C-alpha cells in the first residue's frame, strides 16, 4: 500500500470512527473519594453560593427613587461681627427647598454695608505699589476684588496698594470665626422622605413605613438601636455615625453622605424590604495635606438706603452639604435565570469525571492497567475473533 493511501485511510478512520462511552467500574477507594469529594464541592458551591448567597435564581431590578428633605431647629448668635440674631430654617437652609442634597449654614464671614465705590485692594505681592506707575488702569485679576483704577493709594499707614473699583469695603476672610457661629446647628433635625419603585416588579415603598403614624413622627428621632425606622435624623447624630465631630466640621464646612440602601428580596422577605441607613464623609479630608479644606460659597443680600443708594451685605457661607444617596436592587424568582444557572451547575457536574480520570491515570499504582482498559478499539477482525470464541465456549 502506498504512503498516501495509508494516510487517507487513517484520516477516514479519524473522521468516521464512532466513539461511544463504556462504563468502567474501578473498585478503588481513593478515586471513589476524589469523585465524591469534588461532587460535594460543586454541590456546596451551587447550593451555598449560587442559590443562597448570590440568589442567582432571581430576576433583578434597580431602584428608582425620589427624595425630599426638611430641616428644623433654632439658633441664636451674639457676636461682635453681627447684631444679636435669631436663626430658623428659612435663614440657614440654602436654598430653602431640599431634595437629594441640602446645605446647612454653620459658619460665616459677614461684610455689611458694601457699596459700589473705590477702595484700596487687599495687600499681596501683585497689588502693593510705590506710585501710580505700578498700577494699570482697567487691569483685573480673578483672584483680586475689583478693577484697578490706575492709582496707588494708602491701604494703611505703612502699606500702599492699587486702588480698585469694587464692592467696598472689601471682604477680609483671613479670620474665620472659631468655634463656628452656628454651633447650635448640631441639634437641628432633618426629615427625609424617600419613595422608591422597582418598576419591573411593580413594587413601591416609602421610608415612612406603614406602621408610622403622625404622632410617632412628631416625637421620634432616628437611633440605630432604639428607633431604626424613624426618618428624622439629628445632624450631630449623623456626623457621629460618620465618625466626624460636628463642631470641627462646622468651622470650614464639608460634604456628608446619607446613604439609603434598598436591597430587597421580594420572594421570602418582601415585608422586610425596608431602608438601611449609613453615613460617611464624602469630601476628602486628608490628614497630612490639608490644602483647601471644607466647603464654602458666597451670596449677598441687597438693600437700598433712604437716599436711593444700593448697598449689600456679603456673606461667605461655610456649612455642611448633606447628599442623600439612594441605591439598591430587588430580586424575585425568575424562570430564565433559574434554568441558566441549573444548566451551568449540570455542566460543572459533567466535568467531574475528568478530574477523577486524571487522578486514576496518573496517581494510582495500577494506572497502566486502568489506561489499557480505558479505551477499547473494536476492529472488524476483533468482532470475528470474539464470535468464534463465544461459539467455542458454547460447544464445550
Ligand atoms: N426636621 C424635622 N424635625 C422634626 N420633625 C419634623 C421635621 N420636619 C418635619 N417634621 C414633622 O414631621 C411631620 C411631617 O412633616 P411634613 O413636612 O410632611 O408636614 P408639615 O405639616 O408641613 O410640617 P411642618 O408644618 O411642621 O413643617 C410633621 O409633624 C412635622 O412637624
**Stretches with pLDDT under 50, minimum 5 residues:** none
- Structural Rg: 40 Å
Strand content: 25-35%
Could you give a short account of the major beta sheet? Answer: 7 strands, mixed
Under CATH, the homologous superfamily of the largest domain reads atp-gated p2x4 ion channel domain
Helix proportion: 25-40%
> Can you give the mean pLDDT?
89
Q: Which class best fits the helix and strand makeup?
A: alpha+beta
Q: What small molecules are bound in this structure?
A: adenosine-5'-triphosphate
Question: What is the total number of structural domains?
Answer: 2
Tally of separate helices? 9
Number of strands: 16
CATH topology of the largest domain: atp-gated p2x4 ion channel fold
N-to-C SSE string, H for helix and E for strand: HHEEEEHEEEEEHEHHEEEEEEHHH
The outline comes out as elongated
Q: For this structure, what is the CATH class of the largest domain?
A: Mainly Beta
Measured between the Cα atoms of the first and last residue, the distance is 41 Å
Question: Could you characterize the architecture of this molecule?
Answer:
It is a single chain. With 396 residues, the protein is of the alpha+beta class. It has 2 domains: 103 residues, no CATH class; 222 residues, atp-gated p2x4 ion channel fold (Sandwich), CATH 2.60.490.10. It is 29% helix and 31% strand. It has 9 helices and 16 strands. The strands form 4 sheets. Strands 5, 6, 7, 11, 13, 14 and 15 form a 7-stranded mixed beta sheet that branches. Strands 2, 8, 9 and 10 form a 4-stranded antiparallel beta sheet that branches. It has a 3-stranded mixed beta sheet with strand order 1-16-12. Helix 2 packs antiparallel against helix 7. The radius of gyration is 40 Å and the shape is elongated. It starts with a helix and ends with a helix. It binds adenosine-5'-triphosphate. Adenosine-5'-triphosphate binds next to strand 2, strand 8 and helix 4.
Amino acid at each position: 500500500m502506498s504512503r498516501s493511501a495509508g494516510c487517507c485511510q487513517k484520516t477516514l478512520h479519524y473522521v468516521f470512527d464512532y466513539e461511544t462511552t463504556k462504563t468502567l467500574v474501578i473498585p478503588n477507594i481513593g478515586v471513589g473519594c476524589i469523585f465524591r469529594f469534588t461532587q460535594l464541592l460543586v454541590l456546596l458551591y451551587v447550593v451555598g453560593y449560587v442559590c443562597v448567597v448570590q440568589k442567582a435564581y432571581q430576576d433583578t431590578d434597580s431602584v428608582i427613587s425620589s427624595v425630599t428633605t426638611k430641616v428644623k431647629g433654632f439658633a441664636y448668635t451674639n457676636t461682635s461681627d453681627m447684631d444679636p440674631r435669631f436663626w430658623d430654617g428659612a435663614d440657614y437652609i440654602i436654598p430653602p427647598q431640599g431634595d437629594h442634597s441640602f446645605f446647612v449654614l454653620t459658619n460665616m464671614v459677614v461684610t455689611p454695608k458694601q457699596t459700589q465705590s473705590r477702595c484700596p485692594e487687599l495687600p499681596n505681592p501683585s497689588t502693593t505699589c510705590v506710585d501710580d506707575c505700578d498700577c494699570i488702569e482697567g487691569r483685573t485679576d480673578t483672584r483680586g476684588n475689583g478693577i484697578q483704577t490706575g492709582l496707588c493709594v494708602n491701604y494703611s499707614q505703612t502699606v500702599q496698594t492699587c486702588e480698585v473699583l469694587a464692592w467696598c469695603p472689601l471682604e477680609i476672610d483671613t479670620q474665620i470665626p472659631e468655634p463656628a457661629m452656628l454651633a447650635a446647628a448640631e441639634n437641628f433635625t432633618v426629615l427625609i422622605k424617600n419613595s422608591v419603585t422597582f418598576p419591573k416588579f411593580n413594587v413601591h415603598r416609602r421610608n415612612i413605613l406603614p406602621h408610622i403614624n403622625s404622632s410617632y413622627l412628631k416625637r421620634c428621632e432616628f437611633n440605630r438601636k432604639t428607633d431604626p425606622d424613624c426618618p428624622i435624623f439629628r445632624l450631630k447624630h449623623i456626623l457621629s455615625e460618620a465618625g466626624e465631630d460636628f463642631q470641627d466640621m462646622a468651622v470650614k464646612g464639608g460634604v456628608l453622605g446619607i446613604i439609603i440602601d434598598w436591597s430587597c428580596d421580594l420572594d421570602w422577605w418582601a415585608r422586610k424590604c425596608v431602608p438601611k441607613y449609613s453615613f460617611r464623609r464624602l469630601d476628602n479630608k486628608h490628614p497630612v495635606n490639608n490644602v483647601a479644606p471644607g466647603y464654602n460659597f458666597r451670596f449677598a443680600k441687597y438693600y437700598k438706603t433712604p437716599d436711593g443708594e444700593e448697598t449689600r451685605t456679603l456673606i461667605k457661607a461655610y456649612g455642611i452639604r448633606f447628599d442623600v444617596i439612594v441605591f439598591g436592587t430587588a430580586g424575585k424568582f425568575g424562570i430564565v435565570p433559574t434554568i441558566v444557572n441549573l444548566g451551568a451547575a449540570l455542566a460543572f457536574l459533567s466535568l467531574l469525571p475528568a478530574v477523577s480520570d486524571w487522578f486514576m491515570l496518573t496517581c494510582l499504582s495500577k494506572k497502566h492497567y486502568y489506561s489499557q482498559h480505558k479505551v477499547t478499539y473494536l476492529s472488524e477482525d476483533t468482532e470475528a475473533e470474539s464470535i468464534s470464541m463465544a461459539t467455542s465456549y458454547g460447544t464445550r
